[in-house]
């Protein structure tokens, strides 16, 4: 077993789930930082299955000129390709910002087992803030949700990005 993975497994057993979430959220934050470098809204996502990252993405709406090119959507497509199946049962999606309605719908449709996100999104959040799609008992799939992981760091990255845009006179 690789030394880094071995440390991760020991950490999980000794320190609990929060260390695991922090570890993987830090990887999602690295993706968000790549988005900022590319002048995209800094949101990053990774998908993990059996303690292995199977997808990593960041927002690419400007680069791809695609309104659906959110980090979550790209990561879901990558994970489905990696697994050779559209069902992402047993997978955990880590994302730095609470998913919007489109991404929440894709998470449900992909049968993702767990969603872990950082900052709340009071303007478009579809998990806890504006809508509560994952809590709707009428839906045929339920997703376990963990929120607020590294929320300050996730939120600060977004705030800094938009403050810089405003200083430059951009929206």
Low-confidence stretches: 1-15
Distance, first to last CA:
48 Å
Strand order of the largest sheet: 2-1-3-4-5
Q: Please work out how many helical segments DSSP would assign.
A: 6
Q: What is the helix fraction of residues, given as a range?
A: 40-55%
Task: Kindly report the average pLDDT value.
Answer: 91
Shape: globular
Please state the CA-atom Rg, rounded to the nearest Å.
16 Å
Portion of residues in beta strands equals 15-25%
Which descriptors apply to this entry?
171 residues; alpha/beta; 5-stranded mixed sheet; 6 helices; 5 strands; disordered N terminus
In words, what does this structure look like?
The structure is a single chain. The longest helix is centred in the N-terminal third of the chain and has 21 residues, at 17-37. The chain has a 5-stranded mixed sheet. The chain is globular and about 45 Å long. The protein is an alpha/beta fold. α5 links the parallel β3 (91-97) and β4 (114-119). Helices cover 45% and strands 18% of the residues. It is built from 6 helices and 5 strands.
């Amino acid at each position: 077993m690789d030394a880094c993975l071995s440390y991760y497994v020991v950490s999980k057993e000794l320190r609990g789930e929060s260390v695991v979430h922090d570890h993987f959220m830090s990887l999602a934050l690295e993706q968000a930082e790549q988005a900022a470098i590319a002048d995209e809204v800094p949101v990053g996502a990774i998908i993990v299955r059996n303690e292995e990252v199977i997808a990593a993405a960041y927002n690419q709406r400007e680069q791809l000129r695609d309104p659906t090119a959110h980090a979550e959507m790209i990561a879901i497509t990558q994970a489905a390709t990696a697994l050779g199946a559209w069902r992402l049962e047993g997978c955990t999606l880590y994302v730095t910002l609470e998913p919007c309605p489109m991404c929440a719908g894709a998470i449900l449709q992909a049968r993702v087992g767990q969603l872990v996100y950082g900052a709340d999104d009071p303007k478009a959040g579809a998990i806890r803030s504006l809508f509560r799609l994952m809590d709707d008992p009428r839906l045929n799939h339920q997703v376990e949700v963990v929120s607020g992981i590294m929320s300050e760091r996730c939120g600060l990255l977004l705030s800094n990005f938009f403050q810089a845009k405003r200083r430059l006179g951009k929206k």
